[in-house]
Design goal:
Bound molecules: phosphoenolpyruvate
Strand content: 5-15%
Distance between the termini: 14 Å
Radius of gyration: 17 Å
Subcellular location: Cytoplasm
Number of strands: 8
Order of helices and strands: EHEHEHEHHEHHEHHEHEH
GO molecular function, one term: triose-phosphate isomerase activity
InterPro entries: Aldolase_TIM, TIM_sf, TrioseP_Isoase_bac/euk, Triosephosphate_isomerase, Triosephosphate_isomerase_AS
Largest sheet: 8 strands, parallel
Organism: Bizionia saleffrena
Family: Belongs to the triosephosphate isomerase family.
């Protein structure tokens, strides 16, 4: 059985007081689904959030990390630093990191290796731009992103990886891939895994959808057989909305 996962990416939102308030709202929510729940606060809020949620089933994860173990990388944070405060999962390759911070597939392959060497699980994000979909090249684009960053790995590494398909045109735009478009791409991603790594890697991989998931559309998207959960941006900033999505399974 594949894990269902709903992860909230707070992006660069919530100062200390706002994050404390959101965490206490999250703690008041009732979970009726069996999905794994994760939240990704900013670096400055990670420490108090891990402390605050120690006895909660919500996993606190990071939005990014550097590929180097330590050194002269001003402004960056390493895997070991994250692990030292109890953060064992990190988002890698979010489209905003790719677009605004020039993260390339090659750089992401290095981050992937560092995460695995540091025994960190990661959510690997990828997805096509609107122009790719208009040119009907979305499958080639997505296959290349996955292959360049991940296909140097051994099959055994994939148990520490979660994939998140996030069409760039649907992130923060209010525009969502239709449930059928999401299913079609998730099925293609699973087939891409199967062709190289075989059935067990493909069948066990949790593939999340991200891109304007809201309480109103989550149930239909999550009902698709190859969609195993969601990476949620805007709707993760309100506890009630986030849990309406968590409970959409
Ligand atoms: C995201 O940031 O990964 C995301 C999917 O954002 P939103 O839900 O706001 O589109």
């Amino acid at each position: 059985m594949r894990k269902h996962i709903v992860a909230g990416n707070w992006k660069m939102n919530n100062d200390l007081a706002q994050s404390v308030a959101l965490i206490s709202d999250l703690k008041r929510q009732n979970q009726t689904s069996t999905a794994e729940v994760m939240i990704a606060p900013t670096f400055t809020n990670l420490w108090h959030t891990t402390e605050n949620l120690k006895s909660s089933p919500i996993e606190v994860i990071a939005q990014n990390m550097h590929f180097a173990k330590n050194g002269a990388y001003t402004g960056e944070v390493s895997a070991e630093m994250l692990k030292s405060i109890g953060v064992n999962t990190v988002i890698l390759g979010h489209s905003e990191r790719r677009a605004y911070f020039n993260e390339t597939d090659e750089m992401l392959a290095k981050k992937v290796d560092t995460a695995l060497e540091s025994e960190m699980r990661f959510i690997f994000c990828f997805g096509e731009e609107l122009s790719d979909r208009q040119a009907n090249t979305q499958e080639t684009v997505v296959a290349n992103q996955i292959k360049k960053a991940l296909f140097h790995l051994k099959a055994s590494a994939f148990k520490n990886i979660v994939l998140a398909y996030e069409p760039v045109w649907a992130i923060g735009t209010g525009e969502t891939a239709s449930p059928d478009q999401a299913q079609e791409m998730h099925q293609f991603i699973r087939k891409t895994l199967r062709d190289t790594y075989g059935d067990s890697v493909a069948n066990d991989m949790s593939i999340l959808y991200g891109g304007s998931v809201k309480p109103a559309n989550a149930k239909e998207i999550f009902s698709k057989p190859d969609v195993d959960g969601g990476l949620i941006g805007g709707a993760a900033l309100k506890a009630e909305d986030f849990y309406a999505i968590v409970n959409a399974f």
